[in-house]
Design goal:
297 residues, alpha/beta, D-Maltodextrin-Binding Protein, domain 2, 2 domains, 5-stranded mixed beta sheet, 12 helices, 16 strands
């Protein structure tokens, strides 16, 4: 799902007091081990540390006012990698559009940023099973003056749409008929909000989760989030299934992650990790919500 945005922000920040983060290159692995799968996992276990790339998008992964990297993805990484015997997670904050490229360039060993599983992205990375499934929404001026309620409305009403660079919503907008000149891309949520506030766009198109978090930071400023909806593209409903991703060679690491994630789901322990960041039971994946399903489109 990616096109490169900007150069990587190489600043590493603290994931938690128990699991420190620092900027670092990912551990190198033996090529033959990688071909067999498991080189990265074993090396991470031996070293007790692993490097993970995140993007600055709340509530998935972001730097808070204290400089700590937090969000559903960093916190989930802390829980699962600890269960795998890897106590230290070195998190590197990067632009969203550079995540998959950085992963395959071995700048880090895994990526997570609320990244949706899509057939295009599955061609370049091995996605874990989803930790959440989300619907879309719009952020609009209070009163929703353009009357935007669903995916087809921006094109029908000829409005200007703000999306995140490299995110799926740009494709949704284009495929539902929004003119390319009306699709405005932004590097992050704060930039998109400033565009909306300044009247350069008429709405922001993201997940309901993202927009609810963004609205919580701008209470009383005259904006609202629409009811959630599911875009239909080429006759198929587009639910956003967010997941971690790994290099295709690292099958052992992928399988180990999925195993621990499945345990959290089965023991009803996944939601408590994500709930502080605005996730609800409605976003929890169903039993048949797998990476294989969403990779097929």
């Amino acid at each position: 799902m990616t096109s490169s945005r900007r150069d990587f922000l190489r600043t590493a920040v603290l994931l938690s007091a128990a699991v420190p983060l620092a900027a670092a290159g990912c551990s190198t692995t033996d090529p033959e081990e990688e071909k067999a799968g498991g080189g990265t996992l074993q090396k991470a276990k031996d070293a007790g540390t692993i490097t993970v790339g995140f993007a600055n998008e709340a509530p998935y992964g972001y730097t808070d006012k204290s400089g700590k990297l937090t969000g559903e993805a960093p916190e989930l990484a802390r829980v699962i990698f600890k269960q795998l015997g890897i106590d230290e997670v070195k998190g590197v904050q990067v632009d969203f559009g550079g995540l998959i490229g950085g992963l395959n360039a071995k700048r880090f060993d895994a990526i997570a940023a609320g990244m949706f599983i899509t057939p295009e992205r599955c061609a370049s990375a091995a996605f874990a099973n989803p930790e959440y499934v989300a619907k879309s929404a719009f952020m609009v001026p209070e009163g929703n003056p353009k009357g935007l309620k669903g995916a087809k409305d921006p094109a029908a009403k000829n409005v200007r749409v703000g999306v995140m660079t490299g995110a799926v919503e740009a494709g949704y907008a284009e495929k539902t008929g929004v003119k390319k000149s009306n699709i405005k891309t932004y590097a992050d949520q704060p930039s998109a909000f400033e565009g909306l506030k300044a009247g350069r766009i008429d709405c922001i198109w993201l997940t309901r989760i993202s927009l609810a978090d963004l609205q919580s930071k701008h209470q009383g400023e005259g904006f609202e989030v629409t009811d959630p909806f599911v875009p239909v593209i080429d006759g198929k409903e587009q639910f956003g299934a967010g997941a971690f991703a790994f290099r295709k060679a690292d099958s052992d690491l992928l399988n180990a992650w999925n195993g621990e994630l499945d345990k959290l789901k089965q023991q009803n322990k996944l939601l408590p990790v994500l709930q502080p960041f605005g996730f609800t039971q409605a976003e929890m994946p169903a039993a048949d919500d797998t990476a294989a399903k969403f990779c097929q489109g």
